[in-house]
Design a protein that fits this description.
Number of helices: 8
Strand content: 25-35%
Shape: globular
Order of helices and strands: EEEHEHEHHHEHEHEEH
CATH topology of the largest domain: Rossmann fold
Number of strands: 9
Helix content: 25-40%
Largest sheet: 6 strands, mixed
CATH architecture of the largest domain: 3-Layer(aba) Sandwich
Strand order of the largest sheet: 5-6-7-3-8-9
Bound molecules: adenosine-5'-triphosphate
Number of domains: 2
CATH class of the largest domain: Alpha Beta
Structural class: alpha/beta
CATH superfamily of the largest domain: P-loop containing nucleotide triphosphate hydrolases
């Protein structure tokens, strides 16, 4: 679904070149849940932005759904969820979710049907008429996920979507996201700073390191697809978490 070969991205800045990505090789299969974890500046967001054709690599190859990222963007191959929910306060939740559908020219009837479907998917049925400020932070983030799902793209790119939420809400949304992934079969790319979140959610964990931004470990998770929250106390889970932590420690500069 996503394939990167020797991918480089160097930003030219006033202070000299910044190697945001260097020699990144990664294959993501259809239906995988892949987390990117690593210290600040290791290129997690930059990699997601390359997939979304929001940045242009300076070297190597990248294909998304067999196409160039730009063609994939035009074919609406992905939905993107940001750290902040980014909902328009003057639009209702349904109005926000509908926005990409309006832009893409879906009929009014189709818009209505899809809004109802995705509200159901993120467990917000009945909240379409509310305004964003009438919802909790966790509900707003779910609405933003619904918006990214509304046009049924095969790929969902999520950049630290739950980073600003408290741990209990985050646990709940992690469980919900796994259910949603199981129901929809989407391919998910997910940026996080949390080791338990990465291990709990993923079929594949990509550990990254900065200066230059690169991949230092790729861990294929042996955990079953069905994952109750208390799987986090099992030896298998703790073993993967340990490997991620070791990878992070090895690539960390402590500056
Ligand atoms: N437009 C830009 N111009 C110059 N440098 C940039 C630009 N975008 C990102 N960078 C630099 O590229 C490197 C990687 O940034 P990126 O945002 O991808 O890291 P990250 O791993 O997502 O970090 P964080 O966890 O803090 O979000 C950083 O050193 C950053 O300063």
């Amino acid at each position: 679904m996503i394939s990167a070969k020797s991918l480089d991205l160097t930003f030219e800045t006033n202070d000299g070149p910044v190697h945001a990505l260097k020699g990144v090789d990664l294959d993501i299969g259809k239906g995988e849940f892949v987390s990117f974890i690593g210290p600040s500046g290791c290129g997690k967001t930059t990699f997601l932005r390359c997939i979304a054709a929001l940045e242009t690599p300076t070297g190597g190859e990248l294909t998304v759904n067999g196409m160039t990222p730009e063609n994939a963007r035009q074919a609406r191959a992905y939905g993107y969820v940001f750290q902040a929910a980014g909902l328009y306060p003057w639009r209702t939740i349904a109005g926000n979710i509908k926005l990409p559908l309006e832009i893409m020219g879906f009929s009014k009837a189709e818009q209505k049907k899809r809004v109802e479907q995705v509200l159901e998917l993120v467990d917000l049925a009945g909240f379409g008429g509310k305004f964003p400020w009438q919802l909790s932070g966790g509900m707003q983030q779910r609405a933003s996920i619904a918006r990214a799902l509304s046009f049924d793209a095969d790929i969902l790119l999520m950049d630290e979507p739950f980073g600003a939420l408290d741990e209990i809400v985050r646990d709940h949304l992690n469980e919900e996201l796994l259910k949603l992934w199981a129901r929809t079969g989407k391919t998910i790319g997910f940026v996080t700073h949390s080791i338990p979140e990465a291990v709990y959610l993923s079929t594949k964990i990509v550990v990254m390191s900065p200066r230059p931004g690169r991949i230092t470990d790729v861990i294929d998770s042996p955990l079953p697809k069905e994952r109750p929250l208390d799987i986090r106390d099992t030896p298998e889970f703790l073993e993967i978490a340990h490997r991620v932590r070791e990878g992070l420690r090895a690539g960390h500069a402590y500056d």
